[in-house]
Specification:
Mean pLDDT: 92
Number of helices: 8
Number of strands: 10
Strand order of the largest sheet: 1-2-3-4-5-6-8-10
Shape: globular
Bound molecules: iron/sulfur cluster
Radius of gyration: 18 Å
Largest sheet: 8 strands, mixed
Helix content: 25-40%
Length: 283
């Protein structure tokens, strides 16, 4: 297996499964990107994550393939050439895949390479890291992400913040990483670097987030917005839209629910003088 996605299928398809077939690079139609996203998968052999979200879409798999930056570069060049040939604009090149990208020892090198290929082949495309934020606990990674997130052609960081309380965090992210330690690093990071905050809103074990969780999350979101002094680019609230191996442990909520949360956050941001930050919903 060479780590490439099998063929270039760039339409509005659900082909996240390519990454479980060992693809290092996989084209996918992304709701949040609003078009074609070229995903980079640093874990072609097995899932590797510091979270264990019940809504996680990565199905159990194992492959006899090792990540290589050279193979990734080739596959990325091919995917961008495929998009160009089909005249499909590439919205972003995104580090996502089967786990938390910043955990990979290849992450820093792969980031350099992807930035170089993007500059050469698709300068209009954003370069995105989708992260659960646990990499921010490592000083070297923290510094790398802070430095890469600023300036022209910067890395866009989509930072997960699913919970406003340790209780909900224990249910929706099921991580050994301490909640207060993690949110402490996120609080610091947004005072130093731009980021988009992403929140999954779904029911877990038949229950939606309780009112005290929703209130605590909103309070934290507003505090982050105010202290970031404009560095937070957006809040993205998204719902469960794809199958997950643990279904039905996590379940989609009616579309009106995330919209209500978004509306409440917009009002709170306005009251705090931070209403320039968009709050988007992807039910
Ligand atoms: S952080 Fe992402 S990859 Fe990790 S368990 Fe959660 S959804 Fe899955």
């Amino acid at each position: 297996m060479n780590g490439k996605a099998e063929g270039f299928r760039a339409g509005p398809v659900e082909n996240h499964r390519e990454r479980e077939k060992g693809a290092l690079v996989y084209p996918v139609y992304s709701r949040r990107s609003g078009g074609l996203s070229i995903g980079i998968n640093l874990f072609p052999d097995r899932k590797s994550c510091s979270f264990d979200c019940p809504y996680c879409e990565v199905f159990p798999f194992s492959r006899d393939i090792t990540f290589s930056t050279t193979l990734m570069e080739e596959a990325l060049e091919d995917a961008l050439a495929g998009a160009r040939a089909e005249k499909i604009p590439v919205r972003d090149i995104s580090f996502s895949g089967n786990g938390e990208p910043s955990l990979s020892p290849h992450f820093a090198g792969a980031l350099e390479t992807a930035a170089r290929v993007r500059g050469r082949r698709a300068p209009e495309a954003a370069l995105v890291l989708i992260t659960n934020g646990t990499g921010l606990l490592d000083k070297k990674l923290y510094d790398l992400l802070r430095d890469r997130a600023s300036g022209a052609a910067a890395l866009r960081i989509w930072l997960k913040l699913d919970a406003g309380t340790p209780d909900w965090y224990a249910r929706i992210n099921r991580s050994a990483v301490d909640y207060d330690r993690l949110t402490g690093r996120i609080r610091l990071f947004v005072t130093e670097a731009p980021a988009d905050i992403q929140t999954m809103i779904c029911a877990v074990d038949g229950r939606p987030p309780p009112p005290e969780e929703a209130a605590a999350w909103e309070k934290l979101a507003v505090e982050l917005a105010v202290s970031s002094r404009g560095r937070i680019r957006s809040f993205q609230l998204y719902g469960k839209a794809r199958p997950a191996p643990e279904d039905p442990l996590a379940e989609a909520l009616p579309a009106a629910y995330p919209e209500t949360r978004a509306e409440s956050l917009r009002r709170a941001l306005k009251a705090a003088g931070a209403n320039a930050i968009p709050v988007e919903v992807f039910p």
